[in-house]
Amino acid sequence: MRETSARLLALLGLLQSRPDWSGTELAQRLDVTGRTVRNDIVRLRALGYPVDTVRGRSGSYRLGVGGKLPPLLLDDAEAVAVAIGLQAATGITGVEESSARALGKLEQVLPHRLRRQVTALREATTTGPVNTDSNVEDPAVDPAVLTELAAAIRDHQGLRCDYQDQRLELEPYRLVAWQRRWYLVGRDRSSGDWAPYRVDWLTLRTPGGRPFTPADFPGDLTEFVVREVARTGWAIHARLVIEASADEVISRINPAVGTVEPLPDGRSVLVTGGDSLEVVAVWIGMLGLDFTVEEPAELVQHLSVLAQRYARAART
């Protein structure tokens, strides 16, 4: 019986490793006869694992979709890699609890030698703070909301939602994870305008919106998200005139910081933002260029406070 159980697990592992296997290939890999393979397939089906038979000249077997999650068979390197990934995910807002539970379950069933490897790696590693670019905590996003949004994108199902004091009906197209924020790229049903919507600012309403026929996105999705988030996706938005050309500014900034527009007189405009005045001030200071703040007024006041603080520090 133990030999049969081991062979069934080996067979299940092979079926998980690639989409299709011929009976001959499975027999060769398991070192059994074709009849034994057929009998083992019947046993797997009896245990609730759907194994589909693909008709054809030679025929093949494929692990189908069923109501039961089959045991996940990983080799040593895969098991350690999954454990490391789950450990890292315990610091991500919104999925930290689920990641910690999954890591606990995985470590519980790891063989002793692998558990020692994972434990040694964890104990030998120090993780720096996840949020090093902001004095504002990362927003929490409910994984169930992300799942619902992904399903709406897949099924071309409209969404009814509240977003920053607006009630909208959106056509959802893509989820984008960027700068430790989640954005839903969608089109406003009433105006036809495209925009990235911060998921942590979005409240879904029931029932949802109407089904829609997808339209082609007009342009480059990544460039659009970077540009529009700099304009509308932050708690603080800033517009600055930089005493340098657009090419010079672009060469000095990370694309995630904002967008740059040239001016006729050779200067440029930087549109940027962040979740606090402190973050925006840090990014501006890293430019190493003279600038004038056009908006917001609160940023001008904050920079004035910083200027006085730095002046006092320089006199000591």
TrEMBL record:
Keywords: DNA-binding, Transcription, Transcription regulation
Every WYL domain range: 145-202
InterPro entries linked: CBASS_pafABC_assoc_protein, HTH_11, PafC-like, Tscrpt_reg_HTH_DeoR_CS, WCX_dom, WH-like_DNA-bd_sf, WH_DNA-bd_sf, WYL_dom
All copies of domain WCX, residue ranges: 235-310
Superkingdom of the organism of origin: Bacteria
Domain Helix-turn-helix type: 7-59
GO MF: DNA binding; DNA-binding transcription factor activity
Protein name, entry field: WYL domain-containing protein
